[in-house]
Amino acid sequence: MSLSVIAVISRFLEEYRSSTSNKLKVIDAYLLYILLTGAFQFLYCLLVGTFPFNSFLSGFISSVGSFILAVCLRIQINPQNKGDFLSVSPERAFADFLFAHTVLHLVVVNFIG
Amino acid sequence: SGLVSLLVFVLALEAQALTPSHYLVASDVDRLQAVLSQPFTDLKSAYFSVVGLSKLGVSVADSNDACSFIKANVDSSSIEALFYAAEASQAISSCEIHVSNETRDSLHAAVSEDSTVSQIHQAVSALSSLGLPLASQEVVSALKARISKEDNVVAITLALQTASRLSQQAELGEILEEIEDLAARLDDLGGVYLQFEEGLEATALFVSAAYALSDHVDMEPPLKEDQVIQLVNSIFSKKSWDSLSEAFSVASAAAALSNNRFHKPVVVSAVGPATVSHSHPLLQLHVTDVLCQPLSSANVLVESATSVASKAAILSQTPFTLRDGIFELNFMASKPASGYYQFSVAVTGDSRLVANHVELKVKVSTKVAINNMDLSVVDKDQSIGTKTTRVEYPNKGKASFIADSHQNFAMTFQLVDETTGVELTPHQTFVRLHNQKTGQEVVFVAEPDSKNLYKFELDTAERKTEFDSISGTYALYLMVGDATLENPVLWNVADVVLKFPDEEAPSTVQSKNLYVPKPEIQHLFREPEKRPPTVLSNTFTALVLSPFLLLLILWFKLGANISNFSFSPSSVLFHVGHAAMLGLMYVYWTHLNMFQTLKYLAIIGSLTFLAGNRMLAQKAVKRYSLHHL
């Protein structure tokens, strides 16, 4: 049973390495970074406590928000999804990504205290 | 018998009738007169002063001066000025104002439905005071029309005043009914005051207008006796007046209430405190009207005087005698015992009198004498005979009395009325023992027995806690006091030496002082929250920042590079702008507030947007051209 899981995982990783374009891999690396940052913040909160709560929330929301926006960017940039995003060029997606981040960071910095 | 009890109940209620709690005393009337005697500044103030003083029964200081002032200041084109001049000149003897035919016509013309009630009032009063004829029925119809349009207290009061100047043959019935309607608008405050919400002046003017009109038509105004007294309370509660018009209104009301055909409120008050004694045997009362004039023609009678303590009736139907404007009664002639007496006083002789039954509490004081003061030291086992020493007030016992734990110290005495010899039981009979060395004092109460003989016993052993077991010489004082005693007593009777067993070292008594500064309270500011140790915080900071390192490594491994960076101006500007925005975020965190940030963000953001838009458009063109090669 465990063997099949490992087999599936290694197969997935192989497929990933070969079929994803570099651009997407760059974004995936960024996604991993954001994920880890958020996870470490949550770990701190679990271990040490929620003081100061507003700072924890803003940091965590920042991670989550950034992750979501990056996922959106990845989806919109992926040439395989071109059919779904006829009106959105990759440049437009990137511009949207930047604008959304500006708003997110404004809110996060306001709340971080 | 049900009817009888109902009658008794009603009579009892009537006995509780209201009496004035606020009234003018002589000094208040003088003050009112002084306010009204101020020098005139204009015609209006001359009117208030002259007419106000005449209501108080006083003539203005220099009548010739006043008359010339009025004549000089009257403006024949103003109805108001004519009103003031006419009324004032009428109040001054031998002061006549002559008006031309034109003026007379303008006054007549003012009486119409198109003028305000105030104008009609002024015109009618002027015509009446100048002795000129007027058409009363026209005035009545004009007033009726105006009352329905100007339905406020002041206007209707002026209408009542106006109606009192008209001929008695005119139909004043409807206007007379307005008195009742206005009276219904009065606010009852706590059952004590009755006044308009418009204030004192409106209430006072209403009273004078209502009585003026009632006297004119000879019909009793629809005001109950309690209401009249409540009006008295309202009008005379203020003893200093803000304006000349207010003082005038109070003087008007006082004149109306002291001299009308129907109601005459009576003010009964004691001269000084209501106390009689052998040295001051007379009970003196002021019985006056609201203007503080004594009711010389009235009969003042004590219906009953009963002792508060014993409920025994001392007097019944005893008259007061009038001397120099004060009603007197020699109460001590009835030889009352000391204490309080409830007097029920009735003022008769005039059917108009209101609040003429008054309840008064009179105190009879006396001097106390201490008889048969016997001091003795009694042995507890009664084996040795008691030695009694008599001490006469106000002397002090020559020898000290010694009492130790085997003996009791005893004191007996009698308190009697100095004049009559009747035994007294004052409220305060205390025995005070004062240790002169330590300053300690202990107070006991002496109680009378059934024969009104006072006894005090001190058991040394039993009472040692009160004395803190401090032996020594104590000065013994007797304190006698009561509200009805003219001579309270503090008598150092003797010295007593007390010996307590198990004596502790005498410590000076610290008087319990309640008024020393208390220990200062230190304010505890809110403790800041406990923070985790810095090491831990730093560790986690490093941990949270570490994925960035990982990102850089991954990107390097993926071969991400900036080799395609075009140095076009828009591209440079975009990156600079973007960096500036990130920098702004940091500055926002540290220094700025949201408003400032938004301001800067708008500037930098729009620049970055324009540059970025350009840059991305260039990139898109490049990509498009590349793909479509």
UniProtKB/TrEMBL annotation, chain A:
It is a multi-pass membrane protein. Subunit of the oligosaccharyl transferase (OST) complex that catalyzes the initial transfer of a defined glycan (Glc(3)Man(9)GlcNAc(2) in eukaryotes) from the lipid carrier dolichol-pyrophosphate to an asparagine residue within an Asn-X-Ser/Thr consensus motif in nascent polypeptide chains, the first step in protein N-glycosylation. N-glycosylation occurs cotranslationally and the complex associates with the Sec61 complex at the channel-forming translocon complex that mediates protein translocation across the endoplasmic reticulum (ER). All subunits are required for a maximal enzyme activity. Keywords: Endoplasmic reticulum, Membrane, Transmembrane, Transmembrane helix. It comes from Pygocentrus nattereri (Red-bellied piranha). Coiled coil: none annotated. The keyword Endoplasmic reticulum applies. GO terms for cellular component: oligosaccharyltransferase complex. This is Dolichyl-diphosphooligosaccharide--protein glycosyltransferase subunit DAD1. The chain crosses the membrane at residues 30-49, 55-73, 93-112. Belongs to the DAD/OST2 family. It comes from the Eukaryota. It holds the Pfam family DAD. Pathway: Protein modification; protein glycosylation. The lineage of its organism: Eukaryota, Metazoa, Chordata, Craniata, Vertebrata. Component of the oligosaccharyltransferase (OST) complex.
UniProtKB/TrEMBL annotation, chain B:
Residues 525-623 form the Ribophorin II C-terminal domain. Its main location: endoplasmic reticulum. Keywords: Endoplasmic reticulum, Membrane, Signal, Transmembrane, Transmembrane helix. It comes from the Eukaryota. The chain crosses the membrane at residues 540-560, 572-591, 597-616. One of its GO terms (cellular component) is oligosaccharyltransferase complex. One of its GO terms (biological process) is protein N-linked glycosylation. Residues 372-498 form the Ribophorin II third domain. It is a multi-pass membrane protein. Residues 1-17 form the signal peptide. Belongs to the SWP1 family. Subunit of the oligosaccharyl transferase (OST) complex that catalyzes the initial transfer of a defined glycan (Glc(3)Man(9)GlcNAc(2) in eukaryotes) from the lipid carrier dolichol-pyrophosphate to an asparagine residue within an Asn-X-Ser/Thr consensus motif in nascent polypeptide chains, the first step in protein N-glycosylation. N-glycosylation occurs cotranslationally and the complex associates with the Sec61 complex at the channel-forming translocon complex that mediates protein translocation across the endoplasmic reticulum (ER). All subunits are required for a maximal enzyme activity. This is Dolichyl-diphosphooligosaccharide--protein glycosyltransferase subunit 2. The gene is RPN2.
